[in-house]
Amino acid sequence: MLRGKLKKQMTWFMRVLTNAWQSLMRNKILSIATILIISLMLFIFNLILALSYATESVITNVGEKLDISVEINPGVENYTIQTFTDTLRKNPDIKEVVYVSKDEALGRFGSKYPNVISFLDYHKLQNPLPDIVRIVSTDVENNNLIISYLERPEFERIVNQQKLKLNLEQKSRNEKILNITSFIKKTGIWMNVIFALVTILIIFNSININIHTHKNEIRIMKLVGATQTFIRAGFIFEGIIIAVVALLISVGFSKLILGYLATSLVGIISNENLLAGMNAILLHFQDRFWFTLSWQLLAAIGAGIISSYLAIELYLRKKRTF
Asked: Which helix (H) or strand (E) element contains residue 69?
């Protein structure tokens, strides 16, 4: 009983699929034009997506290097500084804490500018550099939160809070990074919406033309016993086929072109931040190719179903034929 029912459903499915394919083949020029237009549009979408991945990766890489420089007040004991750094390391928003003593800082500065050290020694001047604690956050979004945390009263004796408050460059730099990241994410969302709507519109027009072209055939199909569900399913599958074929062409082309460009540029570019962007493209279009293909395939099927359904409903309201 169950096997017979399953066999019947499979037969129905194959007939619907065959009907959809034959409908596409009867309008080859329209079908090919529609597929190529959608493929080109999806290729542009993948290109923008790749640039978005690259830009976001570069911004993230830059953000990871934006540390917070905290000046320690003069006369603070080494034990107090050690306790302070241990406290900072326990903060979940802080990834790394590095203490640089003023003697170590002067040594590094002197290795680059030995004349300055000679000048200080000659005039018997003391080390003008302060003790510094450099803090790297787990996320650039937490940088300003950490700065606010360091401005608490319990750190007043240790941290030069006045200089920390006056150092607007750190806060401004963090806000710029966050604004750029937010802009990229919002742009990506709107691009997804726009491309989805355009895809639905293109498939809708193609199916709508097909329905009007084959209206006489639809009547004949009804006369020989075809159900409304069967006829509707044929056009829905037609939309799905258009979307899926266009997607496979665009994704395959995107993988080849973007993968080749990224691989070639990786061998040329020496800048670490740009390399991070190229690696992001390779990651999503090579290592994560099947993941990218899967979610785009689901989106294409959804677009095909929605656009075909809308075209059918529009025709039904006008003609009431099936």
From this structure: strand 68-71
How many alpha carbons lie under 13 Å from residue 105 in its C-beta half-sphere?
A: 16
Alpha-carbon dihedral 68, 69, 71, 77, rounded to 10 degrees: 80
The answer to whether 272 touches 61, Cβ cutoff 8 Å, is: yes
Cα separation of 172 and 169, whole Å?
A: 5
- Please count the other Cβ atoms lying within 10 Å of the Cβ belonging to residue 247: 24
Q: Is the pTM of this model over 0.85?
A: no
CA–CA dist 273, 177 (Å, integer): 14
Per-residue model confidence as pLDDT tens digits over 194-226: 888 888 888 888 888 777 776 776 677 767 676
Range 73-159: architecture per CATH: 2-Layer Sandwich (3.30)
Q: Where do the structural domains in the chain lie, given as residue ranges?
A: 12-63+177-319, 73-159
